[in-house]
UniProtKB/TrEMBL annotation:
PANTHER family: OS01G0186900 PROTEIN, PTHR22930. Residues 1-74 are annotated as: Disordered. Keywords: Hydrolase, Metal-binding, Nuclease, Nucleus. This is DDE Tnp4 domain-containing protein. Pfam families: DDE_Tnp_4. It comes from Urochloa decumbens.
């Protein structure tokens, strides 16, 4: 077969693999939510699921099928056309580029320092081994006649290292000795497995017993009753999309950084231990925090009456509702209101610190990524799950990796949406002041 024809076939296959084909185009507004359908109403949102191709077709971008000989320094695999009646001169030959995997072999050796392993993958060997065991059945592939399958540990390592460092795919390729498109495919496959298998285990809304424990811990630390979590919304930078570009334009980041910025939102609720209990990922960056909240599955949970008796503490960009406790925003605050706002800042610090560790531990969240917009919710969701795993297993993060957040708050159009919530907030502020729990600096 002529080489020109093979190049055209190769190029067409690459374009189909990169774009998913015209028949697989998804909505640009793919949103991922962590709420389990068994304990919450089905959100009227496009719940994103990764539809990846299966089968051991890695290294396809580096393969060349030829009809004749030809010199090359790459490894040569010859596949006989058995039973096809072809002559030996018509045998198909497969060229695979020879790459070095020395770095990964060194990392996976038993004598590799634990500190270096933790610095590379943001987790220790025991946590990494647990992750591989949990994902093994979902990401493992079988050997083929042409090559041995990439081991599960290497597949997971490619994904974790990419998320941890945020390095471009060409550097991931050099580190692990794999093709660029192979590395990209592995990242998406492992992230999808994390979302499908581990999110229901490690990132879920607390049940009744856990919610009572959360409320007791928050009240013991702040004096505010009924708090089950703190909410915060951050922005993840993206490359300017080809569709609905104005919706993803982030005006506040653009004005602050003097550089055109596009982003998607990541809204998360955090418990007292710094782990996420709910996430909503994928709404355009131009959308203010209160509108993201209105479109989240958490809001639908509250609308169904499943948040009664519980508060989620938010900042000034969130409205005061029957279940969202927001600070006083008007000028000339009374002493009680000022004291209440200080307590809200303390409670909200749990979520801010969690997001700072999330972005610091997984550096891919700090820079524009090569992942397509429709695939980003699953990748970001996997980062949140990995954060929870590391937090639950006591994986300490290097303080130098901590990311300082720079998300601008916007004032909601309707800051107070419930008269009952207004009275409840006033009662909490009054009780804090007169019970000696205010903690204000001017008393």
């Amino acid at each position: 077969m002529p080489k020109a024809t093979n190049r055209r076939r190769k190029r067409g296959a690459d374009e189909e693999d990169a774009g998913g084909g015209s028949g697989n185009k998804r909505s640009a507004t793919s949103v991922l939510t962590s709420l389990d359908v068994n304990d919450a109403p089905r959100p009227e949102l496009p719940l994103f699921q990764l539809n990846g191709r299966h089968g051991e077709d890695e290294e396809e971008e580096e393969e060349e099928v030829t009809g004749g000989g030809g010199g090359s320094s790459s490894a040569l695999a010859v596949v006989a056309a058995a039973g096809s009646g072809q002559s030996p001169h018509q045998q198909r030959r497969l060229w695979v580029k020879d790459r070095s995997r020395a770095w990964w072999e060194q990392c996976s050796s038993a004598d590799y320092p634990e500190a270096d392993f933790r610095a590379a993958f943001r987790m220790g060997r025991s946590t990494f081994a647990m992750l591989c065991d949990a994902l093994g059945a979902a990401v493992a592939k079988e050997d083929t006649a042409l090559r041995a399958a990439i081991p599960v540990r290497q597949r997971v390592a490619v994904c974790v290292w990419r998320l941890a460092t945020g390095e471009p795919l060409r550097l991931v390729s050099k580190r692990f000795g794999l093709g660029i498109s192979t590395c990209h495919k592995l990242v998406l496959e492992v992230c999808a497995a994390i979302r499908n298998l581990l999110m229901p285990r490690f990132l879920r809304w607390p049940d009744a017993a856990a919610a009572d424990a959360f409320k007791a811990r928050f009240q013991a630390e702040s004096g505010v009753p009924g708090v089950v979590g703190a909410i915060y919304t951050t922005h993840i930078p993206i490359i300017a999309p080809k569709v609905s570009v104005a919706a993803y334009f982030n005006r506040r980041h653009t004005e602050r950084n003097h550089k055109t910025s596009y982003s998607i939102t990541l809204q998360g609720v955090v418990g007292p231990d710094g782990a996420f209990t709910d996430v909503c990922i994928g709404w355009p960056g131009s959308m203010p925090d209160d509108q993201v909240l209105d479109r989240s599955a958490l809001q639908q949970r509250a609308a169904a009456g499943m948040m009664a008796g519980s508060w989620v503490v938010g900042g000034a960009s969130f409205p005061l509702t029957d279940w969202v406790l927001a600070p006083y925003a008007q000028p000339n605050l009374t002493w009680a209101q000022h004291a209440f706002n200080e307590k809200v800042v303390e409670l909200r610090r749990v979520a801010v610190d969690a997001f700072a560790r999330l972005k610091g531990r997984w550096a891919c969240l700090q820079k524009r990524t090569e992942v397509k917009l429709q695939d980003l919710p699953v990748v970001l969701g996997a980062c949140c799950v990995l954060h929870n795993i590391c937090e639950s297993r006591g994986e300490e993060m290097d303080p130098g990796l901590r990311c300082e957040l720079a998300d601008d708050e916007t004032v909601p159009e309707n800051p107070v949406r419930s008269d009952g919530a207004r009275k409840a907030r006033d009662d909490i502020a009054h009780n804090l002041l007169h019970s000696g729990l205010a903690g204000t600096k001017f008393f």
